[in-house]
Amino acid sequence: MKTICTRKRNLGISGALVAIALIGMSGCKQTAQASNASAAAVDPLIVRVTPELMQYVKVGNPQWEQVTIQQKVSARVQTDASRVARIGSPVEGRITKVLVFEGQKVHEGQVLAMLHSNALSDTQFAFVKAVSQTRLAEQSAERARQLVQSDVIGKAELQKREAEVLQNGTEVAALRAQLHGLGMSESAIQKLESTRKLNSDYPLIASISGTVVERKITVGQVVQPADPAFLVADLSNLWFVAEVPEEESGSLAVGKTVIATIPAVPDELTTGKLTFVSPIVNPETRTVQARMNLANPKGLFKPDMLASMTFEDRPERGLTIPTTAIVREDNRDHVFVQIGTNEYRLREVQLGVEVADRRVVVSGLTANDSIVLDGAFHLNNKRRQDQIKGAAD
Asked: Which of 178-187, 284-293, 379-388 is predicted least confidently?
């Protein structure tokens, strides 16, 4: 009997130990589940700041300010198209002299080059011949009038000779106009008419005062009427020209205030207004051309210089934050908003243009929000470190 009782008691103790072990394992499992649930409940966008870190953090509110929206685009300096002249020869000929070169200043009426033209001499010869025939026809008509008065010839003969005078006079007028078209002045034509001395040398004359920007001829070169010989530009006034992207061109208008700068002349700041905005979009570049005038009395600016143009709108009231408050995550703008004591949450915001180291808030913040104005970089590093530690645990 004692033996049986002893075995039963041993069995009872073993069962109790197994039950205790099972209860312990169940408790450990529940503790692990609770720990995992707690870790899952941690928001990765929230960061809790230690007192040591707070000394690098400045907290405040977005500020309402009068902001002037600025839009900066690349530009270049160009010659004023209304102050440029392409000078060439209206007749075919061979260049015999080149009198000016690139960079030289010339005045209106100055001879730039000389050429020899057989076409000019041929037209001059035809003109002189027509003038001589006209004079002979006039003399013949005058004699016919005298003979008609003496009843030597009839009126029909007089009318015939007068018709020849009219025909020759018309030919002279046509050749005179042709010589004008070839570049001869009226005084030169009158001299040719009186002296009957042909001159096949033709001068290329500057039609405006300015600077020789291009020279495309050399001595001995044969030029055609369509060939440009010189490009002369008045550089006392130039253009700033910008190609504004289509999506940024909606606010452009003639009269809009512009601030222009040229890296090559950094001390010169030019302020003016748009004088032209293209009515069409360039289909190849998807840009709209805009320009403003650039006074250049000292000759500091040169065509084709690189520049930048900044367009300004009228001042408007806007909510702004400093650029030091902005955190870039996944190519989006964020700020840290305070949600408790030393506790901040990363919030996505929509921001506009930058004005004097501040960004205009489009959406996502109000003036009552308390945000990190300075030190956002440190908070974001802390938030990332917390994420890494959480993942490791």
From this structure: 178-187
DSSP class per residue in 133-166: HHHHHHHHHHHHHHHHHTTSS-HHHHHHHHHHHH
Measured distance CA(248)–CA(351) in Å, rounded: 16
- Cα(380)–Cα(382) distance, integer angstroms: 5
Q: Which of 15-29, 134-148, 149-163 has the lowest mean pLDDT?
A: 15-29
Token pair recorded at residue 136: 């002979």
Task: Indicate yes or no: pTM above 0.70.
Answer: no
CATH classification code of 118-198: 1.10.287
Residue 181 near residue 90 (C-beta atoms within 8 A): yes
User: What is the gyration radius of the CA atoms in the chain, in angstroms?
Assistant: 46
Q: Do domains 46-66+316-392 and 118-198 have the same CATH topology?
A: no
Note the CATH architecture for domain 46-66+316-392.
Beta Barrel (2.40)
Delimit the domains of the chain by residue range.
46-66+316-392, 71-81+235-312, 118-198
Fold of the CATH domain 71-81+235-312: Elongation Factor Tu (Ef-tu); domain 3 (2.40.30)
Closest residue by Cα to residue 371 from 392, 393, 351, 354:
351
370-386 tens-digit pLDDT: 999 998 998 999 888 88
CA nearest neighbour of 276 among 242, 233, 310: 242
